[in-house]
Amino acid sequence: MLANRCSGSFVDRRRSERLVCNRLAKIHFHYGRLPRDCMITDVSESGVKVIAEDCDVPAEFTVIFSTGHSRRCRLQWRNGYEFGAEYIDYSDRRTSREEIAHAC
Fold it and tell me: At CA 79, angle to CA 47 and CA 71, rounded to 5?
């Protein structure tokens, strides 16, 4: 797999289709800190990609979309101010296509 990355090929490991968007949201931490502003750059049934400046992102947090809809998330990767997270509240329900469209 490292050879693929070095050669310019990208192995897409996404489990669901992404919808590109640029919407303001908030990250809610679960240990007493105030929610922080962020920008959602893409969203799917399984997760979200976020940009949040000067933000120490914990392993688990809640994203509150501009619609008021929220999802509990687990940090999957981080590159500077940009990070990806998967939803961890699957047992409750999955995000529908309508909810994804409204989030963006």
Answer: 25
Q: What's the Cα-to-Cα distance from 85 to each of 4, 50, 74, rounded to whole Å?
A: 23, 8, 5
Q: What pLDDT digit, counting tens, does each position of 26-39 carry?
A: 999 877 788 999 99
Per-residue model confidence (pLDDT) at position 82: 95
C-alpha triplet 56, 58, 63: angle, nearest 5°: 95
3-class SS at 47?
strand
Answer yes or no: is pLDDT of 81 > 70: yes
Give DSSP secondary structure letters for 13-29: --SS--EEEEEEEEEE-
d(CA 104, CA 82): 17
